[in-house]
Amino acid sequence: MRTLLHSMHRAGHIELQELPKDGNQRRPGTTSFYWFFDPERMRRRVLEETYKTMGNLLRRARVEREGVRGVVEKSERTDVVGREDEFLGDEELKALHEWRGKEERIWGEVARLDDLVAVLRDF
After folding, report:
1. 50 with 120: CB under 8 angstroms?
2. Tell me, what DSSP letter sits at residue 23?
3. What is the value of pTM for the model shown?
4. With 0-12 CB in 10 A as exposed, 13-18 as middle and 19+ as buried, what is 71?
5. CA dihedral 26, 31, 35, 41 (to 10 degrees)
6. What is the mean pLDDT of each successive set of 10 residues along the chain, which is 123 residues long?
7. 3-state secondary structure of 4
8. What is the enclosing helix (H) or strand (E) of 81?
């Protein structure tokens, strides 16, 4: 239990209050240690971390898209949309499907985090 409390304290999730039993002397044997947390501070901290995570995901989507930019741009042309099988080669189709899967997962995670933000910010 102490190791868990200590790691939570190091992470800034909880705080420690020392209350000496015998006046101003700080002997560990006669001191009571109380753990506490500030719910509002934790709400702000989790909200901040959530925004950081959302930013990282959006950055990741941009980097992943840059890796297949040519294929994505080609697939978005008006003459290619809906007829990708005719205009794209096998490797391009594979890269496009992989990108769309990654993009879907990233945006799904961003949507879940957005729901968390709504809960933390509005309630």
Report:
1. yes
2. T
3. 0.73
4. buried
5. -30
6. 88 86 74 87 91 97 92 83 83 89 96 95 83
7. helix
8. none
